[in-house]
Structures are given as structure tokens and as C-alpha cells.
Design a protein that fits this description.
Belongs to the WD repeat PROPPIN family. The chain is mainly beta and 457 residues long. The chain contains four helices and 32 strands.
Length: 457
């Protein structure tokens, strides 16, 4: 009997080539074979869509919540050449400018009035006003991933790009970012003053890792910097002014491809996500992160670095594909674009009860809390709540928190822990962490579908 080979695929799958948040995590854009769309993050809502014919896009980068977007062609049949950046004004529904380079564009980052374009070995910065003018150009090491990050808050100046050597980071200070144009009637409060200039000249290069960089992330203020490497086990947080390492977190022990790191707006926590399908949340302000029971021994016994690591205090496992699958003998077309269903992107929001229709109808008192929004490339929109016991309330800085944690470690009792140190210590650590993880899981508050604008989702 001749049995044909069957493939298991999602029922009527959604093809998403790219999805990303704006700088303030108020909207997100998504690119599909039909064009691109702009959604409101929370409450989830489709704001507008553009159906494009003649090719596909690899990215639609929003300039905050304005009508301007930067488009990149991509896929097997790109709408635009891969060496061009298209400035699109969605208010008029057409292209208003384009930038052409001699090579493929690898990545983009933007803020009010500025655009940074990452190429293979350089980053070019443009000022975007009535006209687009070139501001500066910086050499980097090989930057296949197109890493580039910009601080986006008012008066922030930081631009972060790969250094000229592998694992190094360059910190460039541009002219201050202007304030957003206020909406509605003018405020009666006095205008915000720019922060004072630092007394010391900020550091320009940080030796972050000994392997290739995979992500660069900064909060809107530009005070901190998060880096990860191709090893995929550690996340390092740096002071962007002094260049000192503030904290170091362990995602896991096995190698992973880290997709991104996002700072909570008040810079008290960070979340990390990778190809393992798990979102990890770390606390920057306190020592509520999970730690090894052997960590108090590290000042006196030369234990491996593994035992002094800080692990995430909260996690969430994102399903890799739709729960509805079908078995079919149909094969994919060799010219069809295949989306990366394992990929996702995560952002922070401030969720209030007024965003919930049920609570607003019942006149419940309004409350707010930080939550996570996870977007998968298979079309899933997840709203996640953090464990109540893990979120930080202390306003201390990450630097002070790291120092207090070190003092607590040095004054802990050694005798209470030393009895548990044996050959199987590392295995017991994994077992205890698995038990802790069950009690520190983020809870799924809401799930929606996105990626198609024909009424589905």
C-alpha cells in the first residue's frame, strides 16, 4: 500500500511577515501578503488597513502614533527594492519620499524628526522634517540583523548601534528629541524643562559580550541599555551614561535565539522573549528574581557562575501554533512566502479597568496595573497579567538594588545552605525552579486574533 506523505498545517493560516509596536506601545503594525494594517494595542482594535498589490512588505515601522510609516519591501516578490526605504503618509494613502542605498537595508529605528537606517556595516542617520536630510554616518561591525535602537522620550539623545568590533556597542548622542505636539486644549501646567546636562562626558563604547550581538534595547529615557548575544543565555543591563553593568539576568542554560528585550516604561522591570516560546520577566529594582539556594556561598566558595545567576520571577509559555490543525496532502508552492510562526514580539502596557467593557458597565472603581501584550507571527494577540507578588513597588534605582542584593548575599547564613551542596546540586536547582515556575506564571487575561481584516478576530 502506497501512503502519501501528509503535512500538518494550521487551518486557514494567517501569513504575517512582520509585526511591531510603536515606541510608546499604543499601536502596532503588521504586514501580510494583502498589505499592512495598524491596530490599537489595548483595547484591541483595527484602526486602518492598506491593501497593496504588486508585491509584499517586510516591515512597516510606525513613527509613534502619527500617520507616517517607513516601509521596506521584502519576501519573494517585494513591493519595493530591498535597498529602498519608503516614507508613507497614511493620511493621504501614498508615498511622500524615498531613500535609496547601494545595498540592502537591514533595520530601521525612528523617533520624532529622526530616522536611523542600519546597513550591513554602517548606520546612516537622517533628520525627517519638511525634507529628509542626512545627518551622519557611523561604521559598525557586520550587522546582519540590522540592530539599531533610539531613545524616544522628549529631550532624549541616545542612539545605540553595534560597535566596530564583535560584541561591542556604540553609544551616540544626537540632538535632543522634541516634545510631542499636545492634543486638545493647551495645558495650564508649565512646560516641561529639559534635564540638566551631565557633568561627565558619557561613555561612547561598551564591551558588552564576547560573541555577536543579537538584540539592542533602550527605554524611552535612554538611561539604560539591554544587550544579548548569540549564546542566548544572559541578558545584561548597562548604565548608558557611565557604561557600568547594572544587572545580569539568566534566561536559561541552553542556547537560544533571543528575539527581543523590552523595558517597562518606569524602568523597574524587563521582559525577554526567544525562539523557546517563553516570555521571561525580570525585576530591576529588587531581588525578587529567582536565585539559586547556593548563591550565598559564592563570596567564600569559587562556584560556577551558574549558581550566582538571577532567573526570571515570572514566565509565560506562548503556544507555537494555532490549536486548530488539519492534515492535508497539499504541498506549499515553492514560490510562496513562509511566515515564521515561532516568532513573537512583546510590549508593556498600563492596563486599567476602563479598558474593559464589563467593568465600565458595572461602574467598578478604576484601577491600573502593568501588563504584557504578546503578538505572535501566527496571528495571536495575548494580554498577560503579572504575578501579584512579584511586581516591584520600590522606587529605588537598578544600581542601588544591585548593591543591596550583594550586601544581603554576603550576610546570609552559610551553614543553612552548605548542607545542601552535593554533586547533584545543579539538578536539584532545576527541580526547585520548576516548582517555583508553576507558582510564578503570568496569567492569560485575554486572547484575540489579528492579521486578517475581513471581520475575523
Amino acid at each position: 500500500m502506497n501512503l502519501a506523505r501528509h503535512s500538518i498545517t494550521a487551518t486557514n493560516p494567517v501569513h504575517i511577515f512582520d509585526t511591531r509596536f510603536d515606541a510608546d506601545c499604543q499601536i502596532f503594525t503588521t504586514c501580510t501578503p494583502a498589505g499592512f494594517a495598524v491596530y490599537q494595542v489595548c483595547p484591541f482594535k483595527l484602526l486602518r488597513k492598506r491593501e497593496l498589490t504588486g508585491g509584499t512588505l517586510s516591515a512597516a515601522v510606525p513613527l509613534h502614533t502619527s500617520s507616517l510609516l517607513f516601509l521596506l519591501g521584502g519576501g519573494r516578490s517585494p513591493l519595493y527594492p530591498p535597498n529602498k526605504v519608503i516614507l508613507w503618509d497614511d493620511a493621504v494613502g501614498s508615498e511622500v519620499a524615498e531613500l535609496e542605498f547601494r545595498e540592502r537595508v537591514r533595520g530601521l529605528a525612528c523617533r520624532r524628526g529622526w530616522l536611523a537606517v542600519a546597513l550591513r556595516r554602517r548606520v546612516v542617520v537622517f533628520q525627517v522634517e519638511e525634507q529628509v536630510t542626512k545627518h551622519a554616518e557611523y561604521e559598525t561591525s557586520e550587522n546582519i540583523r540590522g540592530l539599531v535602537a533610539l531613545a524616544t522620550a522628549a529631550y532624549s539623545t541616545l542612539l545605540v548601534i553595534p560597535g566596530r568590533q564583535m560584541g561591542h556597542v556604540q553609544l551616540v548622542h544626537l540632538p535632543p528629541c522634541r516634545e510631542p505636539i499636545p492634543k486638545g486644549p493647551p495645558s495650564s501646567s508649565p512646560p516641561k524643562r529639559p534635564p540638566p546636562r551631565p557633568s561627565k562626558h558619557p561613555v561612547s563604547v561598551i564591551v558588552a559580550h564576547d560573541s555577536a550581538l543579537t538584540t539592542l534595547s533602550v527605554p524611552p529615557s535612554g538611561r539604560l541599555l539591554a544587550t544579548t548575544s548569540s549564546k542566548g543565555t544572559l541578558v545584561r543591563i548597562w548604565d548608558a551614561h557611565s557604561g557600568n553593568k547594572v544587572r545580569e539576568f539568566r534566561r536559561g542554560t541552553d542556547k537560544a535565539d533571543i528575539f527581543g528585550v523590552a523595558f517597562r516604561p518606569d524602568e523597574s522591570e524587563v521582559c525577554v522573549w526567544s525562539d523557546k516560546g517563553t516570555v521571561h520577566v525580570f525585576n530591576l529594582m529588587s531581588s525578587s528574581n529567582t536565585q539559586s539556594s547556593f548563591s550565598p556561598l559564592t563570596p567564600w566558595i569559587p562556584l560556577p557562575k551558574y549558581f550566582s545567576s538571577e532567573w526570571s520571577y515570572a514566565q509565560y509559555r506562548i503556544p507555537s501554533q494555532s490549536s486548530h490543525i488539519s492534515i492535508s496532502t497539499t504541498s506549499r508552492s515553492p514560490t510562496e512566502d513562509v511566515p515564521d510562526e515561532e516568532r513573537c514580539v512583546v510590549g508593556w502596557i498600563r492596563y486599567s479597568s476602563s479598558m474593559n467593557e464589563k467593568s465600565s458597565l458595572n461602574n467598578e472603581p478604576e484601577s491600573s496595573e502593568p501588563q504584557l501584550i504578546a503578538l505572535t507571527y501566527s496571528g495571536g494577540w495575548y494580554r498577560l497579567a503579572l504575578p501579584k507578588s512579584g511586581s516591584s513597588t520600590s522606587p529605588t534605582s537598578p544600581t542601588k538594588a544591585a548593591g543591596s542584593h550583594a550586601r544581603r548575599t554576603s550576610t546570609s547564613s552559610v551553614s543553612s545552605v552548605s548542607s545542601g551542596l552535593d554533586v547533584k546540586g545543579k539538578g536539584k536547582e532545576k527541580e526547585s525552579r520548576e516548582k517555583d515556575n508553576k507558582a510564578s506564571q503570568c496569567s492569560l487575561e485575554e486572547f484575540r486574533r489579528y492579521g486578517r481584516w475581513d471581520g475575523w478576530g
